[in-house]
Amino acid sequence: MSAFSLSIDYFSFPTAQSVDDLLYGDATSSLREVNWQSWEACIYDCIVKSKELMGQVKNLSVPLVWLLPALSYQSELKQMLQSSLQQLYPDQDQHFLFYGTSSAHFAVALAKKNKWQKVNVIALDTIYKANKQGQYSYQGVGGAVTTLEQQATGWSQTSSEIAPSVDFIKHNQLNGMFSRLAAQSQQLIDIIFAPGNGINPDSEVWLNELQLLSNLINEYTQYELPSYKLGQIGALEGLVVLYQLTTSPSIESHCKHALIISQEQAKHQCAAAYLWISEEVHN
Question: What distance in Å separates the CA atoms of residue 50 and residue 140, rounded to the nearest whole number?
Fold first, then answer.
């Protein structure tokens, strides 16, 4: 079995009470005023938040994958966070993914590679939301505890690729990713979850590369732009998008092939494709 299900068992978010509230609730909910201090202070907050999240894990006997901030150019902070989590939870079979918004796709690929029937996934990252001044306001640290489980029918990851990027304009890797996807895929893409936030023009770079997917998209292809409503939610974004993909009746009834594009500002770009399969198709 290569299809999977994703359940969000616990959700801790500064501006929403649940993942459904975040996705379908009032997008104009009041912002918290939180002063950004430093990444060192943020890492400390993440460590504190991890204790709350670990307390909600139901099955401690299965592997645990942490989805963490994209600290690609801050190796000391990355090592500090990983070492702290290892010391706090020494009995856990832990795996650490520092890819921010793209981490969820690597968790799916890791579970598939290792043939895990069930795995705990914890996302932990900083939260920013757009304010009336057209700027991102820091909201604090959010987290989610999820269970990823293999099953016979549902969405299956068919490809996932990540590439480092110092500057999205000068070092755009999406053209290569999209070209390979267009050459490999034989099925039209029904829905695209794409980055973009309406604030930073660099976040729209993906639009320039869509022509490379001309053989896979048409006028019926749907587009979802989660960052426009959710803001920048880091490692939680990948899980929230997969949750929407795997649980929305409207998506399930109309879409069989999905593409999810992620961009971490000045970090990396990612493209992951998902296909709806059944046990008969898989066999």
Answer: 14
The arrangement of strands across the sheet holding 268-277 comes to 94-97, 64-67, 118-130, 136-151, 3-12, 154-164, 268-277, 257-264, 191-193, 222-224
Task: Report the alpha-carbon distance of residue 280 to residue 228 in Å, rounded.
Answer: 38
Highest-pLDDT range among 4-18, 23-37, 203-217? 4-18
Three-state SS sequence of the chain? CCEEEEEEEEEEECCECCHHHHHHCCCCCCCCCCCCCCHHHHHHHHHHHHHHHHCCCCCCCCCEEEECCCCCCCHHHHHHHHHHHHHHCCCCCEEEECCHHHHHHHHHHHHHHHCCCEEEEEEEEEEEEECCCCCEEEEEEEEEEEEEEEECCEEEEEEEEEEECCCCCCCCCHHHHHHHHHHHCCCCCCEEECCCCCCCHHHHHHHHHHHHHCCCCCCCCEEECHHHHHCECCHHHHHHHHHHHHHCHHHHHHCCEEEEEEEECCCEEEEEEEEEECHHHHC
- Nearest partner of 230 among 6, 45, 25, judged by Cα: 25
* Token pair of 31 as six digits: 């912002």
Instruction: Give the pLDDT band (50/70/90) at residue 283.
Output: low
Q: Whole-model pTM?
A: 0.93
- Cα–chain-centroid distance for residue 1? 23
